[in-house]
Amino acid sequence: MALITFESVGLSYGGDNVAHDVSFSVQTGEFWGIIGENGSGKTTLMKALLGLIPCASGRIVMGEGLKPNEIGYLPQQSVIQKDFPASVYEVVLSGTIGWRGMKPFYGKQERALAAENMELLGILPIAKKSYQELSGGQQQRVLLARALCATRKCLVLDEPTTGLDPVVTAEFYKLLNTVNERGMTIIMVSHDVEEAVRSCSHILHLSCHPLYIGTAAEYMNSPIGRKYLKETAL
């Protein structure tokens, strides 16, 4: 059984239909890039996946015992998040709250998981630093580590490189590929078509008719893929 299956999903936002009859399956270990023009339903699809809004039609089926609250989520950063007055370690550790259950304090298992993910993303040396004093790239690594602490199976990312310079963006995508190679399923909304095709294994393009659903390699050679990749290269 697939990890996540979208069965004839229809989505609406503000009373308007933004996506119709979306059907595809995400297998464990895949890296999906969700692309499309503004208003095509990318963020709405993500919210439905996370259980924050209902589908207008159809349904989203979770496999392998996955639940919406067990998906690690990295949202777009807000000004409030950037000024969050906590240490790197505290921010990352907060991602384990879902595993803590009724325990009033973090245990050895949660602390070990936080340390493991900080080491994976290269931020263990700055564990005691204040989050608000970090660069944008460092903050995104911290939030990614926090999201990893919330899940063992699936990450959902919303425009994770917005506001980052090209060098930091490239480094961040390398980290995502490393996480994916370790078996983590990733679903990422992105406005960067070229980078999504380069990094992801599969593409869902929402703003074309019919929808493109398939591998990134096939997308590059499809009419819609060639069109959009040519436009981003201009």
List keywords for this structure.
single chain, 234 residues, alpha/beta, Rossmann fold, 2 domains, three-stranded antiparallel sheet, 38% helix
Summarize the structure.
With 234 residues, this protein is α/β, with parallel strands linked by helices.
Please estimate the helix content: 25-40%
**Approximately what portion of the residues adopt beta-strand conformation?**
15-25%
Q: Can you count the helices?
A: 10
Residue runs with pLDDT of under 50 for 5 or more positions: none
Shape: globular
Structural class determined from secondary elements:
alpha/beta
Alpha carbon gyration radius: 18 Å
Under CATH, the homologous superfamily of the largest domain reads P-loop containing nucleotide triphosphate hydrolases
Largest sheet: 6 strands, mixed
Q: What is the CATH C level class of the largest domain, in words? A: Alpha Beta
CATH fold description of the largest domain: Rossmann fold
Cα distance spanning the termini: 41 Å
Query: What is the CATH architecture annotation of the largest domain?
Result: 3-Layer(aba) Sandwich
Please tell me the overall pLDDT. 89
* Count of extended strands: 9
What is the ordering of alpha helices and beta strands? EEEHEEHHHHHEHEHEEHH
Estimate nothing, just give the exact number of structural domains.
2
Q: Order the strands across the largest sheet as they lie in space.
A: 5-6-7-3-8-9
